[in-house]
Amino acid sequence: MEKEFIGVDIGGSNMKAGKVVNGSVVQSHLAEVDRNDTEEATLDKLFEIINKVMTNAVEAIGIGVPAVVDPESGIVYDVQNIPAWTKIALKDMVYQKYKVPVFINNDANCFALGEKYFGKAQAYTNCVALSLGTGLGMGILIDNKLYNGVLCGAGEIGMLPYKNGIMEHYTGSFFFGETYGQSAKALFNKALEDDSVALEAFNEYGKHLGEAIKAILYLFAPEMIVLGGSISNAYPFFKDAVMDSLGSFAYQKQLEHFKIETSDLVDSPILGAAALCL
Questions:
Q1: Stretch 77-92: mean pLDDT, rounded?
Q2: What pLDDT band is residue 81 in, cutting at 50, 70 and 90?
Q3: CA-to-CA distance for 173 and 164, rounded, in angstroms?
Q4: 80 burial via Cβ count (<10 Å: 0-12, 13-18, 19+)
Q5: Could you give the CA distance from residue 15 to residue 46 in angstroms, rounded to a whole number?
Q6: Starting from the edge strand earliest in sequence, which strands make up the sheet with 24-32, in order?
Q7: Which pLDDT score, from 0 to 100, does residue 45 have?
Q8: Domains (ranges, CATH) in the chain?
Q9: Edge-to-edge order in the sheet of strand 87-89
Q10: How far is Cα 15 from Cα 13, in angstroms, rounded to an integer?
């Protein structure tokens, strides 16, 4: 029989629950996240969307959150987009409600795990998943296993000091608004029309991302990096700049055994959360 899991992605502006069967999301429901909601109100929204995809056949629930997580206890700390969730025993609360195993992890780690079970990382032993969105998230897979670090803190490359700030100020969506006064999506649409300013924006972005990738290569020497998140759709417009940055990488022989790919998973945050159950 095909196993059924529920994956839940708690994002910056909404949360989404999906039923996953045989590596595909067969049903999903969405609720808005209001940063002014109480802890109880946000939990009610979470239970509401899970209820809509829950069946007796569901074997476990996986939840990805953009926060510091203790995956053993299931306690989530300081969720930035839900200020009321400063310390919440989310695993126990969800278990008490549904009486099935519950697994919780950081959302970037979920992305990496989703790629390992369902996406581009299946063929690799050591790889890194980079989520290019509001910030720069990173999940690390070593010897086919997710590396969490203490409280799922491993992989916070976006917080590394860089130029006049931190790395994700130059490799997240902040960069386009601060430097070009436009969103990444707007610039992407203009780049499709060969707009010179948009093309320059992504070229500059690629240079910064290339520096982050060089740091990853020095630290982990992965076989592959898979790019996900909304900005990864524009990879054709910053690929050359990334590769130019890698031209100064000290160990060029290593690059012969290294690839950069983009995720092609549909509903990857839900699949990644569901992969925690595996």
A1: 92
A2: confident
A3: 16
A4: exposed
A5: 7
A6: 24-32, 14-21, 4-10, 58-65, 102-106
A7: 96
A8: 4-106+268-275 (3.30.420.40), 120-262 (3.30.420.40)
A9: 68-70, 75-77, 87-89
A10: 7
Look at residues 4, 15, 19, 97 and name the one whose alpha carbon lies nearest to residue 53: 19
Q: By three-state DSSP, how is residue 210 classified?
A: helix
Dig out the tokens for 115 from the structure: 């790629």
Q: List pLDDT tens digits, range 130-142.
A: 999 888 999 999 9
- Helix, coil or strand: residue 240: helix
The proportion of the chain whose per-residue pLDDT surpasses 70, expressed as a percent, equals 100
Strand partners, 128: 140, 225
Q: What is the pLDDT of residues 19-45, one digit of tens each?
A: 999 889 999 999 998 889 999 999 999
Q: Using the structure block, give the residue that is written with the tokens 């009610």.
A: 44
How many CB atoms sit inside 10 A of residue 143's CB? 7
Structure tokens at 205: 């972005």
Element (H, E) at 207: helix 196-220
Average pLDDT for 132-156: 93
Q: Checking DSSP bridges between strand 24-32 and strand 58-65, what pairing results, if any?
A: unpaired
